[in-house]
Design goal:
By secondary structure, this protein is an alpha+beta fold. It is built from 8 helices and 15 strands. Strand 5 and strand 6 (58-65) form a beta hairpin. Helix 7 (254-269) runs antiparallel to helix 8. The longest helix is centred in the C-terminal third of the chain and has 18 residues, at 221-238. The protein is elongated. The protein starts with a strand and ends with a helix.
């Protein structure tokens, strides 16, 4: 093929073995698309393709990825709004014939067996988004360096339970997955799922040291979802060998240590931390100097 089909917010380039999706960076382009940039979707990652009428004189060319082929869609778990689906290309109705041509070209490359097309992929076939690898949540800052996820709690947003637990570091080898709940719904959050724990954590996300919570302006989709997808891809690549969870990142900035001891004292005075907890945590913080 090797041709380009341009729609609203994106252009699809059709190659013999893949579809390259290039998202625009215009002011009206959804921020998630801008964060994704360019995505290479191999034909083997595609389960099907459809062309349907759209709204207001448009048609929509949609590609359905195979289960387990794209970490972004695995992390999203069906929560993306229609307008932010990276596998939908909205086109003017006058391009319907051309769009149908490309849809048929893709179908011709897919296996004849529907079961084979829909079979879960054994590995991710679409690369995770390149960024961002950090974002600000309501109760802390999440960062990922490719091997370790770190949560650094916020002065104002973190619960006393998270302050007691301290900042967290999770090597991807210690994780079994990621739970992402869109900030556009109630109780949005990103939760890491440690290996060896059956089911999801019973703790509320605001009390769980393995989770950060979203809020108005915190953890937006275009920042937190690519982050979740990158972590999920790294977890799957790491394989089944577990590593211990390392809780409490070493802190060497004296000013930061002083701020944390001051906040701990406020929790102690408010009765949220016992004398024993205050003494133990203060000693731990001082030992990090």
């Amino acid at each position: 093929m090797g041709d380009v089909l341009t729609g609203f917010h994106a252009a699809w380039e059709f190659e013999s073995e893949s579809v390259r999706i290039r998202f625009e960076r215009g002011i009206r382009t959804p921020k998630l698309f801008q964060a994704l940039g360019t995505r290479e979707v191999p034909v083997e990652a595609i389960a099907g393709v459809t062309l349907t009428p759209g709204r207001r004189g448009t048609v929509v060319l949609s590609v359905e990825p195979r289960p387990g082929a794209d970490p972004l869609m695995d992390a999203a778990a069906g929560q993306l709004k229609e307008g932010c689906d990276p596998y939908r290309l909205v086109l003017p109705a006058e391009r319907e014939t051309l769009a149908e041509y490309y849809a048929e070209e893709i179908r011709a490359l897919l296996p004849d067996d529907p079961g084979q097309r829909a079979a879960p992929a054994e590995e991710y076939l679409v690369a995770p988004p390149e960024g961002p690898r950090h974002f600000k949540a309501y109760d802390g800052k999440a960062s990922f360096d490719g091997t370790t996820v770190s949560f650094r709690w916020s002065w104002t947003g973190a619960s006393s339970a998270k302050w007691k637990a301290g900042d967290q570091r999770y090597p991807v080898g210690s994780l079994s997955g990621v739970e992402w709940r869109s900030p556009e719904i109630l109780e949005g959050h990103l939760r890491l799922l440690p290996r060896g724990e059956a089911g999801q954590s019973a703790a509320q996300p605001d009390q769980d040291p393995a989770a950060v919570v979203f809020g108005l302006g915190y953890g937006p989709v275009h920042e937190s979802l690519p982050f979740a997808a990158a972590v999920l891809a790294a977890v799957r690549k790491a394989g089944p060998a577990p590593e211990p969870v390392l809780a409490g990142a070493a802190r060497r900035d004296p000013a930061d240590i002083a701020d944390r001891i001051r906040h701990l004292g406020e929790l102690h005075e408010a009765g949220l931390v016992t004398d024993e907890e205050f003494s133990a945590k203060k000693a731990q913080l001082l030992a990090e100097l």
